[in-house]
TrEMBL record:
It comes from Leeia aquatica. Keywords: Aminotransferase, Pyridoxal phosphate, Transferase. GO terms for biological process: biotin biosynthetic process. This is Aspartate aminotransferase family protein. InterPro entries: Aminotrans_3, Aminotrans_3_PPA_site, PyrdxlP-dep_Trfase, PyrdxlP-dep_Trfase_major, PyrdxlP-dep_Trfase_small.
C-alpha cells in the first residue's frame, strides 16, 4: 500500500534528502509527524523517545509553548525585514540576550542561519581581522582531524572527516589540520574528561604544526571543544587550556565551534564555561533557537569587533558579509524566547544535576558484546562498537533501526552511537533509553 498523508498519496521521490541513504530510506521510510517535549509521534502514531534532541538542537524539548507562541506572534507582525543597512528590533533583542549568556568577554553577536554558515563566517572574520590590522601574513587556518564544522567549503576545508571532503575538489588553500584528541589505548571508558595526554597533545600542535607553518602565518585554529559528529570525543584534561596558551603565545585566534556544546549540553551554558577556557570567537546554532527556526550566530571578543570598526573608513561597511536571512524576525523571536526559557527553567543546571545519573546509565553498557568504548560529558554519551570487518557502520545502523522499532531515537556515526537528549529529560527516560540499548546490544549481530 502506498503511503498516505492528508488523505493523499505521499510521493517520496522528488525530495533529495540530506545525509541520507535515499534509496534505502524511500524503500522503508521513517516519518515523524509531530512532537511534544521528549517525544516524537511517527506516521503510524507511535511515540518515539527523542534520545538526540532532534539533531543536537532541541535542548528545551519539543514544541515548547513560549517558543511556538513567540514565532506565531512574530509571523503575524513582521514576517521579514531586510538585514543589510536596515534592521528590526527583535534581532537586537536576541543579540543582547545572547551576549548576556555568552562566555565572559565575548560581547558581540553576528547572526547566520546554521552551524555551517557560522563556521564559514568565523573563518572569514578571523582572516579579515588580521588583514585589517595590517598583519597580512596571517592567512592560514588550522582545523583538527575528526572535526566537523558543517558542510560549506570553509567548514569542510578545516573539518577533518575524509568522507565529507573527498568528493568535492581541492578545497581551500592554506588549510592544515592538527591531530585529534582520541586516545582509546589510554582513555577508553573514561567517565567525563579523560585523564591521559591532554597537555602532551596540545604541545604536539605547537611542536609539529606550528614549526611547519611558522606561527606568524596562522590566522586561527578552530576546534569543537568536544567533537560531536565524529562520535563524542571528549578532550583529555588540560588540552584546551594548553591550546589557549599556545594560541596566545603566537597571536593566533582560537575559535570554539560550540554548535553542539552550546546552550547547556555540557551542564554549563558553553563548553568555554565548563572547561574555563575563553576562545576569541564562538560559533553556535542549533540550541540557539531550540531548532524551531533555523538560526546560527558567531560571538566575538570586543577587540575583534573594534578591530573592524577602527580599520574601516567612516561610513564604510566594516565586514562585507551576511545573509538574506541573518537575524530573520522569526528566528530572532524564537531565539529570544528560547534563551528566556533556558534561564527560567534552569535547564543548564538541570543538565548538570543529571550528569552523574546519565554517566552511570551510559557506562552500564560496558561489557556488552561489541562495546569497545563508552564516553560521556554533560548530557552527551558516545558508545563505540567494534565494526563488522569491511562493513563500517553496519552494526550501529542496525542498532539504530532496532531502537526506532522499539520507540527510541538514537543517532549513529560510523559504528558509534551518539546520544544527546533534550535537557528536560527525566530519569525514567534515561532508564528507558539505556534499557532499550542494553537489550538491543545484548543480541546485536
Ligand atoms: C560542531 C558543528 N559545527 C557545525 C555544524 C553544522 O551545522 P548545520 O548543520 O546547522 O549547518 C554542526 C552540525 O552538526 C556541528 O555539530
Amino acid at each position: 500500500m502506498s503511503l498516505q498523508w492528508n488523505d493523499a498519496p505521499l510521493n517520496l521521490e522528488p525530495y533529495w534528502m540530506p545525509f541520507t541513504a535515499n534509496r534505502q530510506f524511500k524503500a522503508a521510510p521513517r516519518l515523524l509527524v509531530s512532537a511534544q517535549d521528549m517525544h516524537f509521534t511517527d506516521i503510524d502514531g507511535r511515540q518515539i523517545l527523542d534520545g538526540t534532541a532532534g539533531l543536537w538542537c532541541v535542548n528545551a524539548g519539543h514544541n515548547r509553548k513560549p517558543i511556538t507562541e513567540a514565532i506565531q506572534r512574530q509571523a503575524g507582525t513582521l514576517d521579514y525585514a531586510p538585514p543589510f543597512q536596515m534592521g528590526h528590533p527583535e534581532a537586537f533583542v536576541a543579540a543582547e540576550k545572547l551576549v548576556q549568556m555568552a562566555p565572559k568577554g565575548l560581547t558581540r553577536a553576528f547572526f547566520t542561519n546554521s552551524g555551517s554558515e557560522s563556521a564559514d563566517t568565523a573563518l572569514k572574520m578571523a582572516l579579515a581581522f588580521h588583514r585589517m590590522r595590517g598583519d597580512v601574513h596571517r592567512v592560514k587556518l588550522l582545523g583538527r582531524e575528526r572535526g566537523y564544522h558543517g558542510v560549506n567549503f570553509g567548514g569542510i576545508a578545516v573539518g577533518g572527516i575524509a568522507g565529507n571532503r573527498k568528493l568535492f575538489g581541492t578545497g581551500l588553500a592554506g588549510v592544515d589540520h592538527i591531530g585529534h584528541t582520541h586516545d582509546p589505548a589510554r582513555n577508553a571508558f573514561s567517565q567525563g574528561e579523560p585523564e591521559h595526554g591532554g597537555v602532551e597533545m596540545a604541545n604536539a600542535v605547537e611542536a609539529r604544526m606550528l614549526a611547519l607553518h611558522d606561527p606568524s602565518t596562522v590566522a586561527a585554529i578552530i576546534v569543537e571543544p568536544v567533537a560531536g559528529s565524529t562520535g563524542v570525543l571528549v578532550p583529555p584534561k588540560g588540552y584546551l587550556k594548553r591550546l589557549r596558551e599556545i594560541c596566545d603565545k603566537h597571536g593566533i585566534l582560537l575559535i570554539f565551534d560550540e554548535v553542539i556544546t552550546g546552550f547547556g549540553r555540557l551542564g554549563r551554558a558553553w563548553a568555554a564555561d565548563r572547561f574555563e577556557v575563553t576562545p576569541d570567537i564562538v560559533t553556535c546554532a542549533k540550541g540557539l533557537s531550540n531548532g524551531a527556526v533555523p538560526m546560527g550566530a558567531v560571538l566575538v571578543k570586543e577587540n575583534i569587533y573594534q578591530g573592524f570598526m577602527e580599520a574601516a573608513a567612516a561610513g564604510a561597511i566594516e565586514f562585507p558579509h551576511g545573509y538574506t536571512y541573518s537575524g530573520h524576525p522569526l528566528a530572532a523571536a524564537a531565539a529570544s524566547a528560547t534563551l528566556d526559557l533556558y534561564r527560567e527553567d534552569g535547564l543548564f543546571e538541570r543538565a548538570a544535576a543529571l550528569e552523574h545519573y546519565w554517566q552511570e546509565a551510559a557506562h552500564s553498557l560496558r561489557g556488552l558484546p561489541h562495546v569497545k568504548d563508552v564516553r560521556n560529558l554533560g548530557l552527551v554519551a558516545g558508545i563505540e562498537l567494534e565494526s563488522i570487518p569491511g562493513q563500517v557502520g553496519k552494526r550501529a545502523f542496525s542498532a539504530f533501526l532496532q531502537a526506532f522499532e522499539q520507540g527510541v531515537l538514537i543517532r549513529v556515526t560510523g559504528d558509534i552511537i551518539a546520544l544527546s537528549p533534550p535537557l528536560i529529560i527525566e530519569k525514567a527516560h534515561i532508564d528507558q533509553l539505556f534499557g532499550t540499548l542494553q537489550q538491543i546490544l545484548g543480541r546485536l549481530e
